């Protein structure tokens, strides 16, 4: 992908130790390994990725699980309408309406290979829909925190992404 900027920190992640937490206002908190995520029904789709900085990576082939499937297992409370997706690189986090997040894919493969850590592996969020923004494609996802109230603080993704544009 042409947009990779080596100045940005790639976290030191051990694929075997990595876990995805699905927590917050859910009936059952989940802690899933990369292999457990692979045991869900995985979908493959092709997509271009465009960053507001002005570059495009064309024809990427992603494979992963619909977040809807993970949430179905966790069971959000009826009043849950929001979520905060947190990453392993410091304070990076992105808030979503739960319905939009449900439609996104948590990708574990890119172009037929396990998603490398340089590209956001073990798991990277790939939102769908025309209105998606580049900073919503959270790399190194560590937790999905379901909320009833809209996160008032903690959504740093947009600010961090825009602060990089010179
Ligand atoms: N965890 C995390 N995810 C992130 C970012 C980041 O800094 N940290 N940057 C976002 C932005 S603005 C873009 S354009 C893409 C860049 O993806 P790439 O590094 O694979 O080119 O990742 C998005 N996801
Ligand atoms: Mo971006």
User: What ligands does this structure carry?
Assistant: ligand MTE, molybdenum atom
What's the end-to-end separation, in Å?
Answer: 20 Å
Counting DSSP E segments of at least 2 residues, the number of strands comes to 10
**From N to C, what is the helix and strand string?**
EEHEEHEEHEEEEH
Strand coverage percent: 25-35%
Break the fold down into its secondary structure elements and pairings:
Blueprint (H helix, E strand, L loop, with lengths): L18 E6 L5 E4 H5 L4 E8 L5 E11 H8 L7 E6 L5 E5 H6 L1 E6 L2 E2 L9 E3 L14 E7 L9 H7 L3
The structure holds the ligand Nc1nc2c(c(=O)[nH]1)N[C@H]1C(S)=C(S)[C@@H](COP(=O)(O)O)O[C@H]1N2 and molybdenum atom.
Provide structural commentary.
With 166 residues, the protein is of the alpha+beta class. Helix content is 16%, strand content 35%. The protein has helices at residues 34-38, 67-74, 98-103, 157-163, and strands at 19-24, 30-33, 43-50, 56-66, 82-87, 93-97, 105-110, 113-114, 124-126, 141-147. The strands form two sheets. A five-stranded mixed β-sheet has the order 2-1-10-5-6. Strands 3, 4, 7, 8 and 9 form a five-stranded antiparallel β-sheet that branches. A hairpin with a 2-residue loop joins strand 7 and strand 8. The longest helix is centred in the middle third of the chain and has 8 residues, at 67-74. The chain is globular and about 40 Å long. It starts with 18 loop residues before the first strand and ends with a helix.
């Amino acid at each position: 992908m042409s947009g990779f900027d080596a100045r940005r920190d790639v976290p030191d992640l051990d694929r075997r130790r990595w876990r995805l937490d699905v927590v917050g206002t859910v009936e059952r908190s989940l802690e899933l390994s990369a292999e457990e995520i692979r045991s869900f029904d995985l979908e493959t789709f092709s997509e271009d990725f465009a960053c507001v900085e002005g570059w495009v990576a064309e024809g990427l082939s992603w494979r992963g699980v619909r977040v809807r499937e993970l949430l179905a297992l966790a069971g959000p409370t009826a009043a849950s309408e929001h979520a905060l997706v947190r990453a392993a690189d410091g304070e990076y986090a992105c808030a979503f309406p739960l319905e939009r997040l449900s439609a996104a894919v948590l990708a574990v493969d890119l172009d037929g290979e396990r998603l490398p850590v340089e590209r956001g592996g073990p798991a990277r969020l790939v939102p769908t829909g025309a209105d998606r923004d580049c900073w919503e494609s959270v790399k190194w996802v560590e937790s999905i925190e379901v909320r009833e109230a809209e996160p008032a603080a903690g959504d740093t993704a947009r600010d961090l992404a825009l602060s990089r544009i010179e």
